Every structure is written in structure tokens, then in C-alpha cells.
Amino acid sequence: MPGRILATLAGAAFAGGGLTILLDKQLLHPFDWTSAQWLTILMVFGVIASGHLMVTAWAAGQLPSSLGFGLLFVAGTWLVVYSSVGRQVETTGATTLSVEDANKKIVDKSADLDRAKKRKDYADGQVQKTMTGSYCGRSCRDWKQNSKDVAIVIKQLEADIAALGPQKPVNAQAEAMADIVLLFPYFHATKLQVVAVLSLLVPFSKTLFFEIGSIVSLGFAFRPGPLPKTFSERKAETLENVTLPPASMFSGEQPDPTPPKGGRRKTTKRFPENVVPIRGGKHPVERALEKNGGSVSSNHALAELMDVSDGEASKRWQEIQDRLIVTRRGRHVHLALRQA
Questions:
Q1: Which of 12, 59, 280, 296 is the most buried (most CB within 10 A)?
Q2: Residues 21, 210: contact at Cβ < 8 Å?
Q3: CB-based burial of residue 20 (10 Å sphere; 0-12 exposed, 13-18 middle, 19+ buried)?
């Protein structure tokens, strides 16, 4: 069915992203996995399967099973998010501490550099004070040596500061997003508050994104296909789609269909209702009397043999009265075939 391959690839990508958050670099080294890491992987796939089975059981009308899978899905999601958020906070915390430590080193070394430069300026000033003309005595030579030592310290501090580089923001993404949020006047919060909220929500949202994405994608990929329709179902569907015109559109007797061009129209000879066509050389009354042994005791009996009304039977036998022997007995008429 269309979309299954893409949905499978998307589900695998989402699942891989969630596992990368949980396992980090250990994801590519399965032989080094511990029992805790194996349990984490099984828990992720269990959550994905329970979410898919919850929907499947609900569609099948199995409410208890659907509720059970729903509880597993909620509990598993909480555990996965808890583990993932903890992992992200741990990684983020380590990065934050590293950045803060580097920034602190830069600040401390910059302060040391300022003090060293001041000491050198002071030592150079003392050299000028202790000199007698062009002669530099013992005190003058000591201050010169002090200035040289401080100059060495200054060069070392400048090299260290250059190696550390400029100060880095502790949470650059959150701070940039906080600046964007604070552009709107409806947010009455400080930048530190916005950064703190974003730092809490981002790990949770990232984990939930990968987990829900894998559940939805794999659920769509492994959805049950439609069953083929039987012949009777297709026929019934065809009859349902046929639209007949309403009966109110027709009134009176319908005209005969127009014959196609180039051919003769077939006509059917119509007889009046009181005229009965004779087929096979015998009248219907003769055939009925022969079937009944050659005679009937009344006109009503003849009508029953021909399956017509009494009046119609009377009309029919009168048409061939010369071939019959008619005997009247009161109100009854006895009819018999005239022998040759």
C-alpha cells in the first residue's frame, strides 16, 4: 500500500533519534551495552508497540485490551521521558559547567593580567626613581629584575587567554530564544526566567517528539490493508450507486421506443380483449374440455380450467358454440364437445 516504505523509514529514524538521546555514543557499540542499556532499548520499543496495539485493539472493539495497552503506553512514556530528560540534563549540565569554568578562567586570568600590568608599571616607575643620573644602583637593579619577571608573567597570561578564546554564552539557544520571546510585550518575565523555562521544556519536548513520531509512523506503516471485496459486495455497491429517476417524472402511457435508423421496427399484433388467438389449430375452450374428459358441468368449472373469470369463459365458449353441445339445466350450462 502507498506510504508504507516511507512510514517505515520515518519510524526507524524517529526511534534512532530517541535511542541516540538515551544512549549517546554507546548506541554504535552494542557489544559494550550493559543490562541497563538493553532495558532502555526494550522499553523504547515496548512503548512504541503498546501505542500501536492500543489503537488496533480499540478499532477491533476490545476495550479491556485497549485500556491495558494504554496504561503500558502512559507508564512507558513517562519512564522514557524521565530517562531521556535525565540524560539530556546530565549532558547539558556537563557542557554548562565546562563553559562556565572556561569563562571563569578567562575572567580570572584577565584580572591577573590587569594586576600584572599594574605591577610592571609600578616596577618601571621605581626604576626611574631609584636611578641616580645614569647610574642604577642595587635598588634600581632589583626593580628592573622585578619588571622583567612581571613581563614574563604578562606574556604567559596573554597566551593562556588567547588559548581560551572569548567568553561563550552558557545556553546560547535558550538565550537567543528568550530575546525573541521578550520582543512581544505580552510576556511579563525576565530573561533569566524565560531561559530557565526553556531549559526545562526542551529536553522533554525533544524526547516526546521522537517517541510520538516513531509510534505514529510505525503505526501507519503496519496498518492492516483493506480486504478484497466479494462479487456480491461489488454487485450490491454497483446497485446502490444507480440513481433512478423519480416516479413523478412519468405520467400517462409511455410511448414505444424509437426504432434505430436503417432498420425495420418490429410490430406485435394486438387483439382486443374479447378475442382469443387460436394457436395449434384448437380453441382454448376445446383444449380445456379435452383436458377435462370432453365436458364440464357448468360455466364456472370451465372458467377454473382456463383460469379466467366466469364472464370471460362465457364469451369464449360462445365463440365456438357450433362445435359444442350446450345443455341448459336451470341456471347451469352443461358443455360438451360435439363428436365428429
A1: 296
A2: yes
A3: middle
Length of the chain, in residues: 340
8 Å CB contact between 214 and 18:
yes
> Hey, where are the domains in the chain?
4-221, 284-337
Residues 28 and 58: beta-carbon distance below 8 Å: no
Where does 284-337 sit in CATH, by number? 1.10.10
Rounded to two decimals, the pTM is 0.39
pLDDT at 78: 81
Burial status of residue 214 (CB atoms within 10 A of its CB: 0-12, 13-18, 19 or more): buried
**DSSP SS3 for 327:** strand
CA distance to 139, 149, 150, 152, 172, per residue, from 124 (Å)? 12, 12, 10, 14, 43
Residue type, 321: Q
CA angle 305, 310, 314 (to 5 degrees): 90
Helix 35-59 vs helix 191-221: crossing angle, to nearest 10: 60
- Least confident range of 80-89, 134-143, 284-293: 80-89
